[in-house]
Amino acid sequence: MHTASNPPASLAAALVHRSRANEVYEELKRDVSEFKLVPGDRFTETEISERLGVSRTPVRQALFRLQQEGFVEVLFRSGWRVLPFDFDKFEQLYDLRMVLETTAVQRLCAGSQAVDTALLAELNAIWLVPAAQRSTDHVQVAQWDEAFHCALVAAAGNAEMARVHRDVTDRIRIIRRLDFIKQPRVDATYEEHAKILKAVQAKRGDQAAMLLRAHIETSQAEVRKITLHQVHLARQAGSTTPR
Predict the structure, then answer these.
(1) Among the CATH numbers 3.90.550.10, 1.10.10.10, 3.40.50.1820, 1.10.357.10, which is that of 9-82?
(2) Fewest beta carbons within 10 Å, which of 2, 49, 126, 184?
(3) For residue 227, what are the contacts with CB-CB under 8 A and spacing of at least 6?
(4) 3-state secondary structure of 3
C-alpha cells in the first residue's frame, strides 16, 4: 500500500524526470538569453545530455517545451536548431508591454492603497544615484533594467497584470539584453529611469506614462536594428564577461 510519503516507484521516477526536465529547460533558456546559443546554432540531444550530465529523456522534454515557445525547432534526422528571431512577435510583445507599464504608472500616481511603496523605494536606491555610483557592468544593468520594469508593474498592486507582464518580459529577454552591449544605452537607461521615478514620486501620471512610453519606444526601435552579427558579438562579450 502506497502512502503520500511513499509514492509508487513509477510516480517517483516521473517526478524526478519532470524536475530534471525543468532544470534542463531553465538551463537551455538561460543559454539562449545569455547568447551561449544563438539563432542558427545546431545541436543534438546527446550533446546536451552529456554537457548537463542528465539522460536524454529530460533533455527531450525540455526541448519540446522550448519548441512550443518558439525558441528551437527539431530538424529531421539532424538534431535541433535555435530559431531566428521573430521580429513581428517581438513588436506585438512590446506593444503589450507598453500598455501594461503605462497603465501601471498611472495607477502608481493615482495614490491607490494597493501601491507597494517599499518596491518603489528599492528602485529609487538603484536608479536615483550620482553618476559616479552607477554600475558599469552591462550584464548587471540589463538585469536591473528588467527588474525595474517588473517592479513598476508589481508595485501597482494588480497581481494578474504583473503575471502577464512577467510572461512578456520572459519572452523578450533575449533581445532586450542586446540593448545593453553599448555604453550609451546604459547611460541613457539610468537617465530615463530616473526621470520616470521622479515623475512617479511627484504623482504626475501623464508625464510618467509619456516618459515610459518614449523609453520603451526607443528600446523597440533598437530591436528593429538587431542583426545576427550583433548577436555573435554579444556571445563573444558574454564569454569574457564575469557572471
Answers:
(1) 1.10.10.10
(2) 184
(3) none
(4) strand
